[in-house]
Known about the structure:
- By secondary structure, the chain is an alpha/beta fold.
- The chain has helices at about 20-25, 50-55, 65-70, 85-90, 110-115, 125-140, 145-150, 185-195, 220-225, 245-250, 270-275, 315-335, 350-355, and strands at about 5-15, 35-40, 75-80, 95-100, 120, 175-180, 200-205, 215, 230, 255-260, 280-285, 305-310.
- The protein has 2 domains: about 5-120 and about 315-355, Rossmann fold (3-Layer(aba) Sandwich), CATH 3.40.50; about 125-310, Rossmann fold, CATH 3.40.50.
- Strand 1, helix 1 (about 20-25) and strand 2 (about 35-40) form a beta-alpha-beta unit.
- The longest helix has 19 residues, at about 315-335.
Amino acid sequence: MRATGHVRILAVGDPFMPVSAFTSALAAVGDGVSVTALQIEDAAAPPPRTASEELISEYAGDPAVIAAAVAGHHMLVVHGAPVTAEVLDAAPLQLVCCARGGPVNIDIDAATARGIPVTNSPGKNAEAVAELTLTFALMLIRGVPSAARFLLAGGRHADSAFEGGQFIGGEAVSMTLGLVGLGYVGRAVAVRARALGFTVIAHDPVPPRIVPAGVTIVGFDELLARSDIVSVHARASAGNRHLFGTAAFARMPRGSYFINTARESLVDEDALLDALSSGALAGAALDVVERRADSSRHPLLDLPNVIITPHIAGATRETLRRGAEMLVVAIAQVLAGEEPDYLLNPEYQARKAAVS
């Protein structure tokens, strides 16, 4: 596969990943390429209007706007913009690039049916998510949530070393960290955790291709029973919704901690609330939570032993740059007549040959 002649690329930014992140990286592609920039300012999207729109999720903007903008382009670069069958039919696309690990905003089957390769950027946020995960772990075992709320509630700042006694915590060297999922993020967490002195065990339903030094692979139930901290790094699927519910939390040692920087669907938050309120769990840190059906305040926000952040785990400048640079590599490979890295639909070749 080789892109020939002058190549036009449409780069679409969104409220998380501005189009400037793409255009800066695309400047390295070189001559023979022109870039059109489109910025989606509002993450709101209309209700699905087509079968293809029903198949995608977590997208920002109107597919009709993307379809109109992509006409006449040969490559499409997005982060969260919707890429539907209608978008794919609007241009002679030779490549679709998505700067996400899980490109749920792309109708990949529709791209395959049209002989269009799709690439993504797996692991682009692994460093950032791993750092926040370890930050959460250290904050939990040192009792930072309760200590900070003590002062915010009017508690007196310590005048001596003795007053810290009510917030006695633990150290990494005495803790076992259990990782559920040992992909890009899980491995990055494991390496950092081992350096801090944690004992690290891990479970992954798919045998991991790489196991960092010092990490022991165990079964799910054993991980729950042995871990002082359980941290979730699994990819969400229909089969693991509410993987962590009443039964899973009951298997964890009393006084242990729970961290979720993956996906909110993996956790039954009512069960987590019960485990925290009863003292079965000593604390939790969550970067993702499910939106309440009635838009009310999330009850976990009011627990003194809980940290909740608004989905910031991957929100770093380095993550944006790394994602854009990975897509530029894929574009350069296609321009050179090579198969792109991180190809999501290698079967596109058979379909392309069939329709040629």
